[in-house]
Recover the amino acids of this structure.
């Protein structure tokens, strides 16, 4: 087919001729015509994952674009500001394997553009003249880049420091810039920022992509489909994020199954600060998929003083349950209208279930830990004082230590608390009714069971142990609540001393299975959960 160069307006040809370098090269071939049908096939009601590519060399960007298309990617953003040499549009788009968004982001907006602003404007105009599917145009320059052909205009705004108070006003002004799509990306500093962005997208009359950047804002990326955004953004790989908080596109597609989220999907999640290290989204989503449930489990990073904003919005967002961890376990019980007796006794919950107007609180850490210990010691649970005669030392005074110490004390075990901060150990011991020893004297106590409730030995600090190997013997049982890695240095020491052991994975899977039952009313696929977490924490990863 003869290239349709004659249909390009004269002013576009003149504009591109004024620029310098390879950026003037505009290739017009069958690819520009083939993708005209893209807009007929994809309405704005179908939300896609737009995978962002940023590479310094054309060759790498083209290869990754081809790979993504072969893997089923529907839309790819080519970040031209990452290319380190003169940009050849024809090379990037003439034979593009799937539709594209072309972006040349300024440094002030989080990009890497190093050339002049005039060159950038010429490049964006050239992309429109070339007939690409989408071009990202910042709101302040939108009037300088006219509409032409079928190219859709994404009018964008970026704030890398905060989410401004005037989102609605900002959105209205951007929509007036002849926008096909309005894109607002701002930094989330609180969960309340997410709620304002979600409300903006939900009520928008123009197709809108509203993203709160950063780990706190991940929820806005995952809910884009539910809110009606035309697409959301993901990165090609977790190690090459183009913006703070971006998720890997495979994670979006395969773990969160973004494209099948609908109005009936029920949401669950883990609330923590930080939350990126948590494997709870992995095992719960794998479990949901195994049982074909229309449910998703998200990571919620929520600062300590911001928990109320999340809890109070759960009904509106169709969040049906939460796993709760550091630093929210003690505070979370205040939001529960009802709590099981063990959670009340412990003074902390790690599970919240929302039913109608009620918020129900549970502590599955306690249940799981007691199951592990009772199984290891073959405890007769029918006895009135099933653990009388056992002495256990709990290292640490945080939420998991509190839950385990309380459970042991209820079963008449002699409990000793030892923490690097002795004052915290004393407070916990006074509340539960047990005794303490100073941290530097912990090896002197005569015990049957050692429980590590501290993060010592957790990835990536795997060369540390909270207890000396020389103090262990075959008469000791060792329980490490750290699950990544499963074989912590403490567990390795215990194995060498022929101790009975309980690993963090044993407890993690049991508590997650209890949560799954509370969330869904169904028995958990425990085998799948265990296989998933063991594979994820295995230091030898087979790809």
């Amino acid at each position: 087919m003869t290239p349709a160069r004659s249909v390009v307006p004269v002013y576009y040809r003149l504009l591109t001729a004024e620029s310098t370098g390879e950026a003037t090269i505009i290739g017009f071939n069958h690819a520009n015509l083939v993708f005209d049908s893209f807009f007929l096939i994809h309405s704005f009601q179908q939300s896609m994952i737009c995978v962002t590519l940023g590479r310094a060399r054309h060759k790498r960007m083209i290869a990754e674009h081809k790979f993504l298309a072969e893997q089923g990617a529907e839309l790819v953003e080519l970040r031209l500001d990452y290319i380190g040499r003169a940009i050849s549009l024809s090379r990037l788009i003439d034979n593009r394997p799937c539709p594209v968004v072309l972006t040349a982001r300024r440094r002030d907006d989080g990009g890497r553009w190093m050339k002049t602003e005039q060159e950038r404007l010429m490049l964006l105009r050239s992309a429109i003249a070339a007939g690409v599917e989408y071009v990202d145009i910042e709101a302040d320059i939108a009037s300088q880049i006219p509409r032409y052909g079928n190219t859709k205009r994404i009018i964008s705004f970026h704030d890398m420091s905060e989410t401004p108070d005037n989102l609605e006003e900002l959105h209205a002004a951007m929509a007036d810039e002849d926008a096909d799509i309005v894109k607002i990306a701002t930094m989330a500093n609180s969960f309340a920022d997410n709620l304002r962005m979600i409300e903006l997208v939900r009520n928008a009359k123009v197709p809108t992509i509203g993203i709160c950047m950063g780990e706190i804002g991940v929820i806005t990326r995952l809910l884009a489909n539910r809110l009606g955004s035309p697409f959301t953004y993901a990165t090609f790989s977790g190690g090459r994020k183009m913006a703070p908080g971006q998720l890997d596109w495979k994670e979006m597609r395969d773990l969160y199954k973004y494209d099948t989220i609908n109005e009936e999907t029920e949401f669950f999640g883990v609330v923590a600060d930080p939350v990126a290290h948590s494997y709870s989204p992995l095992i719960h989503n794998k479990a949901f998929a195994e049982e074909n449930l229309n449910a998703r489990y998200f990571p919620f990073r929520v600062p300590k003083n911001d928990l109320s904003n999340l809890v109070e919005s759960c009904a509106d967002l169709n969040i049906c349950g939460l796993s709760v961890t550091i630093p929210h376990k003690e505070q979370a019980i205040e939001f529960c209208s009802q709590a099981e007796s063990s959670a009340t006794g412990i003074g902390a919950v790690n599970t919240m279930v929302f039913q109608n107007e009620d918020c129900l609180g549970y502590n599955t850490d306690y249940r799981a830990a007691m199951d592990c210990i009772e199984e290891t010691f073959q405890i007769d649970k029918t006895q009135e004082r099933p653990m009388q005669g056992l002495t256990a030392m709990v290292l640490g005074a945080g939420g998991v230590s509190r839950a385990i110490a309380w459970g042991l004390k209820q079963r008449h075990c002699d409990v000793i608390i030892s923490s690097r901060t002795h004052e915290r150990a004393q407070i916990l011991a006074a509340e539960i009714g047990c005794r303490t020893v100073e941290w530097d004297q912990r090896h002197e106590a005569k015990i049957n069971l050692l429980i590590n409730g501290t993060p010592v030995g957790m990835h990536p600090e795997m060369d540390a142990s909270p207890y000396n190997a020389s103090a262990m013997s075959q008469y000791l049982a060792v329980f490490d609540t750290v699950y990544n890695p499963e074989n912590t240095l403490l567990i390795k020491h215990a194995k060498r001393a022929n101790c009975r052991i309980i690993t963090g994975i044993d407890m993690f899977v049991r508590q997650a299975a209890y949560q799954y039952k509370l969330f869904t009313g169904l028995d958990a696929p425990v085998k799948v959960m265990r296989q998933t977490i063991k594979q994820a924490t295995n230091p030898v990863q087979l790809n």
Notes: The mean pLDDT is 91. Residues 19 and 119 are 6 Å apart (CA to CA). The chain is about 35% helix and 20% strand.
